[in-house]
Amino acid sequence: MAVVLGLVLGLPTTTLVRFTWQGVVLGVVTALPIIAGFFLLQIAPVRSIQMLNFHVRRLVVPLLRSSTLAQVAAISLFAGLGEEMLFRAIIQQGLQQWIGWSFSPELGLVAALMITAVLFGVVHAMTPLYALVAAALGLYFGLIWLWTDNLLVPILAHAVYDFVAILWYLHGPKRLVRRRDKRSGDH
What we know:
8 helices, single chain, 0% strand, mainly alpha
C-alpha cells in the first residue's frame, strides 16, 4: 500500500530502503534501547503501566497464541516494513517536503517528525498510555531514519522490537504475569 501511495504522490519509497550489512547491524543495535525500555515497563510498579501490559496481553495472546516462531518473525517483519514505509516514507517524507516547500526546510523536518510521531501514537492508541509510548517509539524510529538515511534501519529496529515484545507476551514468565494481574485487580 505504501509503495502504491508513494507512486501516486510522487514520493520515493523503495529507493529509501538500502540493504547493507551496516544497515542490518544498526537496525538490530537501535532496537536494543527500546527493548530495554520495554522490559523496564514490564516490571514498573505503576498501575497504569500494569494495566497497559494487561490490555496488550489480552489483545496479543489470543490472536497469536498458536503462532510458530517463524510466523511471529514474519508478522514482526511485515509490521515493521509496512508501518515504517507508511509512516516514514510516505507521511514523514511527504510532510517534510510539503512543509519545507511552504515554509522552511528546517521547520519541515521538525514538524514532519513530530506530526508523524503523534499520528503513529494515535493509530496505536489502545489506551492513552499506549498512545504516548507508541508516539515516543514513532519519534525514535523517525530520528533513526533521519540519522542513518536508510529506511532499512528503522524497519529492522521496529521488527526486532515487535518480535521480542510478542514473544514476551506469548511466552514470558506466566507466574509474574498472573501475580501482577491479581495485584492490579484483574484476573
